[in-house]
């Protein structure tokens, strides 16, 4: 069994357990932690996670962050000037872009077809790297999580500390981590 299939199997074990309904948004979040070199393999196997979710009677909605920055940048009036001097973009990245990414995720989390029994799965978070922190986006939407938020996370998890693409200081988050390391799966 490959690494992604093993992660999917561990996910299946977790998602099939009865869901607690009285959890905070951060506790309704599940991080699927995988090696950044497995991104293409993960994308090819996303349907396996969807299958395991639907087999448990839960709904599935997927969101891809891959083109979020490009779409946001395309709406900017002064984008040509930002390309000439990217440092001018830093303030907008800290506020406007975070809200743009959070609004995109919030839209998926609060869509009409999303209930307390739906998994909203998010992939492509590596494309946010260098533009914003995933932690800021998650903080903005925690109260909007109805069912479960599954975040496919290319990086590392160690002692409740998450590091995206192994490139930044991590942050502590209350999410449930699903990793290949024994004992890392917590319910």
Could you explain the architecture of this structure?
There is one protein chain. With 187 residues, the chain is α/β, with parallel strands linked by helices. The chain has one domain: Rossmann fold (3-Layer(aba) Sandwich), CATH 3.40.50. Helix content is 37%, strand content 20%. It contains 7 helices and 7 strands. Helix 6 (90-109) crosses helix 7 (134-141). It is globular, with a radius of gyration of 17 Å.
| Percent of residues in β-strands | 15-25%
> Segments where pLDDT lies below 50 for 5+ residues?
183-187
Helix content: 25-40%
Overall radius of gyration: 17 Å
Mean pLDDT: 88
How do the SSEs run, as a string of H and E? HEHHEHHHEHEEEE
In the CATH classification, which architecture applies?
3-Layer(aba) Sandwich
| Principal-axis shape | globular
Task: Give the terminus-to-terminus CA distance.
Answer: 23 Å
The tally of helices reads 7
Q: So what's the CATH class?
A: Alpha Beta
What class do helices, strands and sheet pairing give? alpha/beta
Number of domains: 1
Could you name the CATH topology? Answer: Rossmann fold
- Counted beta strands: 7
Biggest β-sheet description: 7 strands, mixed
């Amino acid at each position: 069994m490959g690494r992604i299939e093993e992660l999917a199997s561990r996910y299946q074990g977790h998602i099939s357990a009865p869901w607690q309904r009285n959890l905070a948004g951060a506790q309704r979040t599940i991080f699927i932690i995988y090696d950044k070199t497995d991104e293409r393999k993960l994308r090819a196997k996303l349907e396996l996670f969807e299958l395991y979710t639907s087999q448990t009677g839960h709904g599935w909605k997927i969101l891809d962050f891959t083109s979020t920055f490009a779409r946001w940048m395309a709406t900017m009036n002064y984008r040509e000037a930002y390309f000439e001097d990217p440092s001018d973009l830093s303030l907008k990245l800290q506020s406007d872009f975070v809200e743009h990414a959070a609004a995109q995720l919030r839209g998926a989390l609060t869509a009409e077809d999303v209930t307390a029994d739906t998994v909203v799965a998010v992939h492509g978070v590596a494309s946010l790297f260098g533009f914003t922190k995933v932690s800021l986006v998650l903080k903005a939407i925690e109260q909007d999580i109805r069912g479960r938020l599954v975040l496919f996370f290319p990086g590392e998890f160690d002692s409740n500390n998450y590091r995206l693409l192994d490139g930044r200081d991590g942050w502590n988050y209350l999410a449930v981590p699903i990793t290949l390391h024994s004992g890392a799966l917590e319910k």
